[in-house]
Amino acid sequence: MEDSSVSSSVDVDKGFAIAFVVLLFLFLIVMIFRCAKLVKNPYKASSTTTEPSLS
Questions:
Q1: What pLDDT score does 44 carry?
Q2: Using CA atoms, how far apart are residues 24 and 27, in angstroms rounded to an integer?
Q3: Distance (Å, rounded) from C-alpha 37 to C-alpha 25?
Q4: In contact, 45 and 37? CB cutoff 8 Å
Q5: Closest to 17 (Cα-Cα) out of 25, 8, 5, 7
Q6: What's the confidence (pLDDT) of residue 43?
Q7: Residue 50 buriedness (CB in 10 A; 0-12 / 13-18 / 19+)
Q8: pLDDT, tens digit, 9 for 90 and up, residues 4-52
Q9: How far is it, in rounded angstroms, from Cα 43 to Cα 12?
Q10: From CA 38, how far away is CA 44, in angstroms rounded?
Q11: What is the predicted pLDDT for the residue at 3?
Q12: What is the 8-class DSSP label of residue 49?
C-alpha cells in the first residue's frame, strides 16, 4: 500500500514545472529591461562592439 501523505506532499514534477515557470518569468523580465534600455538609447546600449574612432 502507498502512503498518501508522502505522495501528496512530494510532487517532483510539479516542483520542476514551478521552477521552470519562475525561471522563465525571470528571464522574461531581464529581457524586457534590456530591450527597454536598447530602445531608450540604442547607441550607448550597443557599445559592446569596438569600432575605431574617427578622431
A1: 78
A2: 5
A3: 18
A4: yes
A5: 25
A6: 81
A7: exposed
A8: 555 556 689 999 999 999 999 999 999 999 999 989 988 875 655 555 6
A9: 46
A10: 8
A11: 55
A12: S
Output the nine-digit C-alpha cell for 52: 575605431
pTM over 0.85, yes/no:
no
Q: CA-to-CA distance for 45 and 38, rounded, in angstroms? A: 5
Which DSSP string do the residues of 13-44 spell out, in sequence order? HHHHHHHHHHHHHHHHHHHHHHHHHHHH-HHH
Residue at grid coordinates 550597443 = 46
> CA nearest 38: which of 50, 25, 30?
30
d(CA 19, CA 41): 33
For 51, what's the count of Cα atoms within 13 Å in the CB-facing half-sphere?
9
The pLDDT value recorded for residue 6 is: 52
Cα–Cα distance for residue pair 43/17, rounded to 1 Å: 38
